[in-house]
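Let's inspect a concrete specimen:
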Amino acid sequence: MGRARRARRIAAAAAYGGGGAGAVGLATYGLLAAEAKIARRVVGTPFETAPDDSGRYGHGFGDQIDLVVLGDSSARGLGVDEPSQTVGAIVAGAVAAFSGRPVELTNLAVVGAQSADLDGQVDQLWERVEYPDVAIIMVGVNDVTHRIDRSVAVRHLAMAVNRLRERGTEVVVGTCPDLGVIRPVPQPLRLIAQRWSRDLAAAQTVAVVEQGGRTVSLGDLLGPEFLESPTVMFSKDQFHPSPAGYARAASALLPSVLDALGQTTVDTGRAPDQRRGEGVGPVAVAAVRAVADPGTEVVGTDEVGLRGRLAVLLRRHREPLPDTSDGDGRADPADDSADPTPAPDGQEEPAADVQNRTGQPH
């Protein structure tokens, strides 16, 4: 079964209350439990707490922008020493600079939180901010490491997004990162965690887009840099990002936050560009492509195709556009578990191909 089908199945189970993450055998479960204990001993707990980054950023004129951050330790900023080094602080400062308006950041993320904890965080949010402008959610790692049924995790995320959207809040979700890049986690746990985290990220995208939010793939965002400079991109526990790692994650989320707020930059408010491998297609296919391509945004459209809602895939990369002199420069789907190009048995199509077939604008 391809990852696109698994993502749809998990998201559907989340919507209708079923299970979506088949149980592992007793022998495999025992092995994973033992490997997880080893990983925890290696990683350790060198941090007591994360800095409090809530507060006002920028000194511009006009009404303040209310930005909230929900989720787990990555959203909280565990692994850094200064409040200014968290994802929330970096994004808040940048939004204030781009908009020329002050930004009030409220961070209610909790170290160790799972997706099921988002409901309580939203409850706390309503006590602090009645109508937030935009919310950033980063969650999923603890669902994988605690072997939470993926459909259950996705259901709680979808409910949180739905509650926020009902208040008119724009929602940007940084999907579950690829745990296969965490070197202290031994094999075979790392390979299994990689598959589970990627499947969860794809299913998160399907569910979030269906609820009116948008997602940004964090994928193996730190992977190449970690291999080359682990002491730079990861903190001393070798698990949570360092200030440089959080800055990279913030740079991936920022364009989507600005776009959600209607702020115009060189990479917001634009149509998909085929030269970047962007396009419009089934949300499950876009979700799979995003998992394999960190920094990719998926946001829904009002269009519904044969396989459900269509979504826009935008690759917000800083690298130059590919050379198209020998072709159209379209990116490869880049995931060997994704369903291949159209076939009579109903397999999925790459998003860019569906865009061309359906005549969607680009």
User: Anything to note?
Assistant: The CA atoms of residues 146 and 310 lie 32 Å apart. The first strand starts at residue 55 and ends at 57.
